């Protein structure tokens, strides 16, 4: 069975009467990428700060890599690397010099420190900029240098607050690839927070969805999607020459459970992925296919359903 490496029970943080994190109970397993997802102000950063022992919970408890962040903040600092959403450096030093400084603070010196700095710079794709002063770095480069700093410590767990925020799409993709690599190839456990749902969904094994301090759902995206829709598959179809018979034709396909029509788009609910079968049938009947799409386990779909329907949010 997978080993829990982060576990919180009824973790709560109040600022006066305002509850920033409300009875959070979550488990993150060793080696997984867990996404803490939700809009701005949902309580993601506050949760991270509690896990790092940087702010005390009002009530509830947390266990991170076997330690209680309130009682053992130094152990947590040793085991957990943290990449904040804005990383600070000594701007007049080069990337490499900044790393050597951090290496020294972590007890690494001389050739060992230099070797390690070169290694992590290589890992984050910054070798070419190692000798440039950090004030010349772009935001994406700063994030990568921040990650290099984290990797110097070789932590068991890496927590990242909005790792792709403000980075161009190419840079964001590279950052996400690095996250995947660190989890899959290096066995790191990664928790990241984000409100950029479509971006991070590809790398997260499981996600927790946060709204107004409450975690309203957690699990693999696929499960969350199924819980929400109750369907296994929904296929969108649009044809150029639809007529009254089409709905009946679609309903008659074996495996189709129901068909809805929404502004010229047919939503075909099916027991399995019937795209090929549907395509064959509509061609056979002489319809012109304009659009055929299997609604995926997209976080955007989940986000829309949870957040944009005020009714649902209130119910939760
Ligand atoms: N020190 C504080 N004092 C009072 N309220 C705070 C404090 N820190 C955070 N909050 C409030 O707690 C709520 C949660 O903030 P938090 O930063 O955890 O959200 P978030 O999900 O990380 O969002 P963002 O991405 O915008 O940082 C917000 O409404 C914020 O204004």
From TrEMBL:
One of its GO terms (molecular function) is ATP hydrolysis activity. It holds the Pfam family ABC_tran. Residues 6-237 form the ABC transporter domain. It comes from the Bacteria. InterPro entries: AAA+_ATPase (IPR003593), ABC_transporter-like_ATP-bd (IPR003439), P-loop_NTPase (IPR027417). Belongs to the ABC transporter superfamily. It comes from Calderihabitans maritimus. Keywords: ATP-binding, Nucleotide-binding, Transport. The keyword Secreted does not apply. SUPFAM superfamilies: P-loop containing nucleoside triphosphate hydrolases. This is ABC transporter.
């Amino acid at each position: 069975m997978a080993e829990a490496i982060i576990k919180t029970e009824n973790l709560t943080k109040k600022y006066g009467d305002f509850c920033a994190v409300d009875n959070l109970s979550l488990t993150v397993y060793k080696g997984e990428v867990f996404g803490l997802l939700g809009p701005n102000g949902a309580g993601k950063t506050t949760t991270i700060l509690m896990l790092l022992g940087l702010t005390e919970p009002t009530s509830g408890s947390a266990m991170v890599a076997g330690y209680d962040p309130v009682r053992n903040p130094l152990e947590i600092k040793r085991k957990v690397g943290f990449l904040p959403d804005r990383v600070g450096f000594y701007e007049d030093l080069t990337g490499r010099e900044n790393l050597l400084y951090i290496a020294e603070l972590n007890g690494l010196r001389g050739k060992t420190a230099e070797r390690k700095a070169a290694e992590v710079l290589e890992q984050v794709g910054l070798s070419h900029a190692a000798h440039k002063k950090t004030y010349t770095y772009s935001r994406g480069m700063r994030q990568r240098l921040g990650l290099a700093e984290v990797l110097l410590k070789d932590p068991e767990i890496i927590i990242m607050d909005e790792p792709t925020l403000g980075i161009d799409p190419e840079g964001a993709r590279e950052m996400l690839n690095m996250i995947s690599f660190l989890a899959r190839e290096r066995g790191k456990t990664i928790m990241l927070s984000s409100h950029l749902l479509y971006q991070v969904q590809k790398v997260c094994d499981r996600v927790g969805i946060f709204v107004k301090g409450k975690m309203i759902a957690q699990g693999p995206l696929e499960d969350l999607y199924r819980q929400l829709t109750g369907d296994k598959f929904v296929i969108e179809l649009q044809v150029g020459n639809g007529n009254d018979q089409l709905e009946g034709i679609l309903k008659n396909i074996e495996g189709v459970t129901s068909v809805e029509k929404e502004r010229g788009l047919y939503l075909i609910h099916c027991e399995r992925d019937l795209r090929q079968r549907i395509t064959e049938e509509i061609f056979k009947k002489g319809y012109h296919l304009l659009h055929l799409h299997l609604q995926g386990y997209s976080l955007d779909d989940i986000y829309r359903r949870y957040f944009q329907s005020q009714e649902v949010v209130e119910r939760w």
